[in-house]
Amino acid sequence: MQMSKRDYLESMFCPRHVSSWCMSKQKRCFDLVVSVAALAAFSPIMIVIGGVIRLTSDGPVLFRQERVGLHQRPFVILKFRTMRHRIADDERGPSVTKHGDPRMTRIGSLLRRLKLDELPQLINVARGEMSMVGPRPKLAQHENLRMLCRPGITGAATIKFSHEEKLLTEIPTEYIEHYVTSVLNPEKCRIDSQYIETACFYEDLKILVRTVFKVGNGSLPVTQPKHLVTSRQRSSSVKSSPVQIARIESMEQATQEVLRSA
Predict the structure, then answer these.
(1) What is the predicted pLDDT for the residue at 225?
(2) Which domain holds residue 55?
(3) Cβ atoms within 10 A of the Cβ of 8, count?
């Protein structure tokens, strides 16, 4: 039976309260100043990237996709396109991307590795659809968080799972969507909820510095995800080979190691 919209919203992670900084005019002014300054500073690089994308692959320079924004309102996120424009039905794969994805363009993997594909989101910030720091905006089917603040280009959960694409390489393709929704996203929601409740100006500065310089994986305490679906449970609902189950067990162990060391 399909879940109603009300039941779906009630099942989501909901922060107990919103910090005074999260939705303040001061944070919005900070986002506007930083995003406009960054657009001015990075515009030459963005023009070069756009030209390289045009020369090396067919299709538009920008990738546009609907994501969940403030108060669950959808908006269109902007990124530099890193995948082939037209992909055959048998190559479409999951809606999330893992390291070495064959759908990537030649320049796409480099842009993702350097996080340069995220630069157009400065336009989203300037428009007021996003913030410099906040929960990452997700697809509607992946969003488990009541978005009580603007989604961000970076955030505490983004830093902690900065190597997510490499982590996903251990997962059989048919399980990626399930793993993201049942394991990774609930843990991200826990971290993002904590951010919404405790955010302040200095925390945003600290997250921005960590993002730029890739210093550590954040200081927020991390526990093993409560929503972890074991390979035994999964094998009872999805027919799996012993090899696939072994790979999932290895992947779950790797995830726990990441969470313990973060």
Answers:
(1) 42
(2) 5-261
(3) 14
Q: Which residues contact 7 (CB under 8 A, 6 or more apart)?
A: none
All residues at 6 or more sequence positions from 199 whose CB lies less than 8 Å from its CB, including other chains: 19, 21, 22, 133, 149
User: pTM, whole model, 2 decimals?
Assistant: 0.75
Q: What is the DSSP string of 53-80?
A: HHHHSSS-SEEEEEEE-GGG-EEEEEEE
Q: Are 109 and 166 in contact (CB under 8 A)?
A: no
Residue indicated by tokens 């995800």: 225
- Asked if residue 101 lies in contact with residue 173, where contact means CB atoms within 8 angstroms, the answer is no
Give the pLDDT confidence of 118-168 residue by residue, as tens digits.
999 999 999 999 999 999 999 988 888 999 999 999 999 988 887 777 777
pLDDT at residue number 27: 98
96 to 52, 82, 191, 213, 252: CA distances (angstroms): 24, 13, 20, 25, 18
Q: Which residues of 140-164 are buried (b: 16+ CB within 10 A; e: fewer)?
A: eebbbbbbbbbbbbbbbbbbbbbeb
Q: In the prediction, which pLDDT does 160 show?
A: 85
CA angle 6, 12, 15 (to 5 degrees): 120
- Give dist(CA 142, CA 66) in Å, integer: 12
Number of domains the chain contains: 1
63: left (phi over 0), alpha (psi -120 to 50) or beta: beta
Report the 10 Å Cβ neighbour count for 185: 22
Separation CA 226–CA 156 (nearest Å): 19
CA-CA-CA-CA dihedral for 45, 61, 184, 169, to nearest 10? -90
pLDDT value at residue 216: 40
CA quadruple 207, 211, 217, 218: dihedral, nearest 10: 0
